[in-house]
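Subject: design request, 66 residues
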């Protein structure tokens, strides 16, 4: 695994996103909104970054990005 800062950030975002959605599905608990609820722009930014991280990882998996 490439240990570049970008790949580390992508890994952290995917873990945060996966755990958050797992908790939403299992316990109806949204940790991102709980922690950042008073800052709706930050919540939206986190969701957007998680989505971009997923797209980046998908592009790496199919070989579009090296």
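Subject: RE: design request

Done. Sequence follows.
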């Amino acid at each position: 695994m490439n240990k570049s800062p970008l790949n580390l950030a992508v890994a952290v975002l995917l873990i945060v996103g996966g755990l958050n959605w797992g908790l939403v599905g299992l316990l109806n608990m949204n940790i991102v909104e709980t922690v950042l609820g008073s800052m709706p722009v930050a919540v939206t930014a986190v969701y957007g970054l998680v989505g971009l991280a997923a797209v980046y990882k998908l592009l790496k998996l199919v070989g579009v990005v090296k």
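The helical segments are 5-27, 31-36, 40-62.
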